[in-house]
Design goal:
Family: Belongs to the peptidase S9A family.
Number of helices: 12
CATH architecture of one domain: 3-Layer(aba) Sandwich
GO molecular function: serine-type endopeptidase activity
Oligomer: single chain
Distance between the termini: 7 Å
Pfam family, one: Peptidase_S9
Structural class: alpha+beta
GO biological process, one term: proteolysis
CATH topology of one domain: Rossmann fold
InterPro entries: AB_hydrolase_fold, Pept_S9A_N, Peptidase_S9_cat, Peptidase_S9A, Serine_Peptidase_S9A
CATH superfamily of one domain: Alpha/Beta hydrolase fold, catalytic domain
Strand order of the largest sheet: 31-32-34-33-35-36-37-38
Length: 691
């Protein structure tokens, strides 16, 4: 089997650490015909490698499909006199969005009207992603947007829900950063990008006018800041947020006076973060002011800058969000690597939403109504399907509204536990495990470790029937919570970013070793998986511990860190300096070069690797994984599977249809089973029969 060989063109990066040759730099030029030819050759090579394993992929795909109820419907959600549902139909890739006035005894709508059928809108496109889905204040109009190539550039349309037809209004090249309707439904606010793909400008569109007549409401010139917009749940205020990685600023527009100039709540200053919501007679402010793990404050409507304490700071209890309702707040927080919810009433009393002890997710579900005495929330774990519950805040009675159907799954066969590993510097690192009940602790099982570990993103356990396909075949599946995420509070994040970034990789490698030490996995059958910044984690973990990993899955991996972060003309770079540092000067130049996966490749054996890319990806450019794979193939001293698949018509999220995503998961599972020798005839990770 002949693997592609990328041409080499001499190029030198001039860096503070010295001149650095990069013979595959040319791949960043997608207009070079050799670039597309190389990506196509890698795709053909990947297809050729998988060809003998088509039966396994088909089996895994059929198994995933059989364990999901393909025709299904969400629990109806009530808003302004209407019940809203989303449903799926067997054989169709995308959801269908509906509403009605009445529900039958079975909870289903008796007068259903289709608002938007994504399958109809996706017809003729290889890729389809729904962006905005925003019902107007009078419930007569729907603002919706679509992306048809994965670039995350959306065309925004407005649908008359009485007729089912779109208006003549067309707003092109809008962003994912939110929309907001005025109170009288005559104006729609939206956000556009700059040349670096940064959401930065808010526009006001008056229905019936051409886009060229839209008024610029707000523009953020500072390239560190992203702009977003939303209408608060009370419906009274339109809120513009401008956020960098370390500071933020909010602006207010009365929803009943859409042409009013936005008013700043508190001017930005370094290291001050805050977000504002409206609580009827006052504003609620979530802020890190004198509170590393954030606290909740209030301010009068007439003086939004006059903050008074409401919920005091508790170190280690990271408050991440506050949702406002007429009679209560719902406070979202992370404590000891576990998400939690608490309800606070106007009298200051608290009611915790208690779920259980096993590692699980817990989050507010769709609760659009401002005046309500109940709260809907969802929970799931690695052995419990997503479950929607509603709790009456007056009586305390909790009702299960729906548990996601899982046909052909015996959930009693699985168990999940929380464990802790000790990292290189002595830090205790939490991780969650799912295995077959009664699996022996004899250090023989193949194991997949999944992690992210950046941007203070916390990764709660989630349910996946695709994952269970691996567990059924003897895998131990591990979700690690390394520093750089937010699971253990803000300091956990700070200890895994900038000049502490290497802690993320040390933590993941420590988790893998701990899983082996506990007898849950074989030392020579470990795989690591991550995407985007998690793909950086994959590459850095492999480089830091080359003998630890037998296989790796790196999805749209951010692996050419120094080159990308040295170029401020690229999308996102300037914004990202507050996360990673600016390698154009020291000390970041040397530190980032010390862990950048692409810059630390050398002549040695490499594990089996399956990498993915998206040609239209605006977040991690396709050339990063392409260069990484090309250089590994040039340098490595073994011939383990080394595969790159580029989605030529998609972006950061990969395939858009649900069946395509299920097949992608089946393909990744097949790769892992083969690479770790967990199927009959599978090639060992460092075998000699496959390139």
């Amino acid at each position: 089997m002949s693997a592609p060989s990328a041409k080499r063109v001499a190029h030198v990066h001039h860096r503070p650490t010295g001149d650095t040759p990069d013979d595959f730099h040319w791949l960043a030029n997608r207009d070079d015909p050799d670039t597309i030819a190389y990506l196509n050759a890698e795709n053909a090579h990947t297809d050729q490698w998988f060809a003998p394993h088509t039966g396994l992929v088909d089996t895994l795909f059929a198994e995933i499909k059989s364990r999901i109820q393909e025709t299904d419907q969400s629990v109806p959600t009530f808003k302004d006199g209407w019940w809203y549902v989303t449903r799926t139909e067997e054989g169709r890739e995308y959801p269908i969005h509906c509403r009605g006035r009445e529900r039958g005894p079975d909870g289903r709508l008796t007068d259903e009207t289709v608002l938007l059928d994504e399958n109809t809108e996706a017809a003729g496109y290889e890729y389809f992603s729904l962006g905005a889905f925003d019902i107007s204040s009078d419930a007569r109009l729907l603002a919706w947007s679509l992306d048809t190539d994965g670039s995350e550039h959306f065309d925004l349309r407005i649908r008359d829900l009485d007729t089912g037809h779109d208006l003549a209004d067309r707003l092109e090249d809008t962003s994912w950063a939110g929309t907001a309707w005025s109170a009288d439904s005559t104006h729609l606010f939206y956000v556009t990008y700059d040349e670096q793909e940064r959401p930065c400008t808010v526009w006001r569109h008056r229905l019936g006018d051409p886009q060229s007549a839209d008024a610029q409401v707000f523009h953020e010139p500072d390239e560190r800041f992203y702009v977003g917009i939303d209408l608060c749940r009370s419906g009274k205020w339109i809120i513009i947020d401008s956020d960098s990685k370390t500071s933020s600023e909010s602006w207010l527009i009365p929803a009943d006076d859409p042409t009013a100039a936005p008013v700043c709540v508190v001017p930005r200053r370094d290291d001050l973060e805050y977000h504002v919501d409206h609580w009827g007679d006052r504003f609620v402010v979530l802020t890190n002011l004198d509170a590393v793990d954030f606290r909740v404050m209030t301010a009068p409507e007439s003086e939004p800058a006059r903050w008074e304490p409401l919920v005091e700071h508790e170190p280690g209890r990271r408050v991440t969000r506050v949702d406002c309702f007429a009679s209560h707040l719902v406070i979202h927080e992370w404590h000891r690597a576990q998400p939690r919810l608490r309800v606070m009433r106007r009298d200051g009393s608290f009611t915790p939403i208690v779920i259980g002890d096993e590692p699980h997710d817990c989050d507010l579900d769709s609760n659009p109504e401002w005046n309500t005495t109940s709260v809907r929330f969802s929970t799931e774990s690695m052995v419990t399907p997503a479950t929607l519950l509603e709790q009456d805040l007056t009586t305390g009675v909790r009702t299960v509204l729906k548990t996601a159907p899982t046909p052909n799954v015996d959930l009693s066969r699985y168990e999940t536990v929380r464990a802790w590993a000790t990292s290189a510097d002595g830090t205790a690192v939490p991780y969650d495990v799912v295995r077959l009940k009664g699996a022996p602790n004899d250090a023989s099982a193949p194991c997949l470790v999944y992690a992210y570990g950046s941007y203070e993103a916390s990764m709660p356990p989630w349910f996946s029937v695709a994952r269970l396909g691996l567990v059924d075949r003897g895998f131990t599946w591990v979700l690690a919570h390394p520093r750089g995420g937010g699971e253990m509070g803000r300091q956990w994040y700070l200890d895994g970013k900038l000049l502490n970034k290497a802690n993320t990789f040390a933590d993941v490698n420590a988790v893998a070793r701990d899983v082996v030490a506990k007898g849950w996995a074989a030392a020579d059958r470990l795989a690591v998986r991550g995407g985007s910044a998690g793909g950086l984690m994959v590459g850095a973990c492999i480089n830091a511990a080359p003998d630890l990993w037998a296989a790796a899955v790196a999805e749209v991996p951010f692996v050419d860190v120094v080159s990308t972060m040295s170029d401020p003309t690229l999308p996102l770079t300037v914004t990202e300096w507050e996360e990673w540092g600016d390698p154009r000067s020291e000390p970041f130049a040397s530190y980032m070069a010390s862990y950048s996966p692409y810059d630390n490749l050398d002549a040695r054996p490499y594990p089996a690797i399956f990498a993915t890319a998206g040609l239209n990806d605006p977040r991690v450019a396709y050339h990063e994984p392409a260069k990484w794979i090309a250089r590994i193939r040039q340098l490595r001293t073994n011939d383990a599977p080394l595969l790159l698949r580029t989605e030529m018509g998609a972006g950061h999220g990969g395939p858009s249809g649900r069946y395509d995503r299920w097949r992608e998961e089946a393909t990744i599972s097949a790769f892992l089973l083969i690479a770790l020798g967990a199927v009959t005839g599978g090639a060992p990770a460092n075998g000699s029969t496959n390139q």
